[in-house]
Amino acid sequence: MASAEIMQSSGNATAASAAAQSTIQIRYVCIVLSMVPIVCLTPFIQKYLVKGTMLGAVKG
């Protein structure tokens, strides 16, 4: 973010805007890529998650 502020102070607002946009896109790509393994593994381990929840349940 500091580099964007430096570019704006130098008077090159379009370069600062492009740098900020690029940073946001990289952040979104990282979020999506970090979700892929979780989404792919969840159906396979779901039975163990449910079994653990039922094991810890208290019957009254």
Give me a quick take on this structure.
By secondary structure, the protein is an all-alpha fold.
How would you explain this protein's 3D organization?
The chain has helices spanning 2-9, 13-55. With 60 residues, it is an all-alpha fold. The model has no long low-confidence stretch (mean pLDDT 79).
Comma- or semicolon-separated keywords:
60 residues, 2 helices
Helix segment tally: 2
The percent range for helix content is: over 70%
Low-confidence stretches: none
Tell me what portion of residues adopts beta-strand conformation: under 5%
**CA(first)-CA(last) distance:** 55 Å
Average residue-wise pLDDT: 79
Order of helices and strands: HH
How would you describe the shape? rod-shaped
Radius of gyration: 22 Å
Overall strand count: 0
Based on secondary structure, the structural category is mainly alpha
Largest sheet: none
